[in-house]
């Protein structure tokens, strides 16, 4: 499988170039829908989120990437699906929910864009989680991707969003988003996985 081969190659490269380390991978369920929510500091982050996870992690990617010959085909083989510039379309939302509801893993960056020091985030991750019933795993990427300097990703325990089930209000989505981001921030500060 192309994904497995590419993951193994990139895992080796990251180990050499960034002394890459993952902690808390055991927190990711071995089955069922999972939404990995991570901070976002670099274009390399989708790779970091997925290379040590046994199951394939899927991501949204800019629609323009899929128009590039060969590369577009490769991106799709690696599990990415297109999202149009300027906002997430109904098709992208439907695809994301299908991925989660059929028991697969999707990675998402709640901040929506690269941001080195923010806890602000959009409601999309919380909305996907609550609408799909997927398990939410917070992840924190620590490091700056400078050559031969350590980069680490930490996966925390599942975030308990049960108190928000059935509540589709903006307030519930905001509170769920804040909880997810608080877990990510906690791991960035402590350098350790969150626990329940």
Q: Total number of helical segments?
A: 6
Secondary structure tally: strands:
8
The proportion of residues forming helix, as a percent range, comes to: 25-40%
* 3D shape: globular
The fraction of residues in strands falls at 15-25%
What is the gyration radius calculated from CA atoms? 16 Å
- Name the quaternary structure: single chain
User: What's the pLDDT, averaged over the residues?
Assistant: 90
Low-confidence stretches: none
Major sheet summary line: 6 strands, mixed
Q: How many angstroms separate the termini?
A: 35 Å
Structural class: alpha/beta
Side by side, the strands of the main sheet go 1-8-7-2-6-3
Order of SSEs, N→C?
Answer: HEEHEEHEHEHEEH
Structural summary, described in words:
With 196 residues, the chain is an alpha/beta fold. It is built from 6 helices and 8 strands. The strands form 2 sheets. Strands 1-8-7-2-6-3 form a 6-stranded mixed beta sheet. The chain has a two-stranded parallel ribbon with strand order 4-5. Helix 3 links the parallel strand 4 and strand 5. The radius of gyration is 16 Å and the shape is globular. 34% of the residues are buried. The model has no long low-confidence stretch (mean pLDDT 90).
Keywords:
single chain; 196 residues; alpha/beta; six-stranded mixed β-sheet; two-stranded parallel sheet; 6 helices; 36% helix; 16% strand
Give a brief outline of the structure.
By secondary structure, the chain is α/β, with parallel strands linked by helices. The protein has helices at 2-17, 45-50, 71-77, 90-101, 124-132, 170-190, and strands spanning 21-23, 34-38, 57-58, 60-62, 81-83, 105-108, 135-142, 152-155. The chain is 36% helix and 16% strand.
């Amino acid at each position: 499988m192309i994904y497995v081969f590419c993951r193994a190659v990139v895992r080796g490269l990251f180990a050499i170039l960034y002394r890459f380390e993952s902690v808390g991978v055991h927190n990711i369920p071995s089955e069922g829908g999972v939404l990995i929510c991570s901070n976002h500091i670099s274009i390399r982050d989708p790779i970091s989120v997925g290379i040590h996870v046994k199951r394939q992690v899927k991501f949204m990617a800019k629609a323009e990437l899929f128009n590039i010959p060969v590369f577009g085909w490769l991106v799709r083989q690696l599990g990415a699906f297109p999202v149009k510039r300027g906002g997430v379309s109904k098709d992208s939302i439907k695809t994301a929910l299908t991925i989660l509801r059929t028991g697969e893993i999707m990675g998402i960056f709640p901040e929506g864009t690269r941001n080195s020091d923010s806890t602000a985030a959009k409601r999309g991750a919380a909305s996907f989680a609550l609408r799909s019933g997927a398990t939410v795993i917070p992840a924190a990427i620590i490091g700056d991707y400078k050559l031969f300097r350590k980069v680490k990703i930490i996966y925390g325990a599942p975030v308990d969003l049960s108190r928000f089930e059935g509540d589709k209000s903006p307030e519930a989505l905001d509170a769920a988003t804040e909880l997810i981001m608080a877990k990510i921030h906690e791991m960035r500060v402590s350098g350790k996985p969150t626990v329940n």
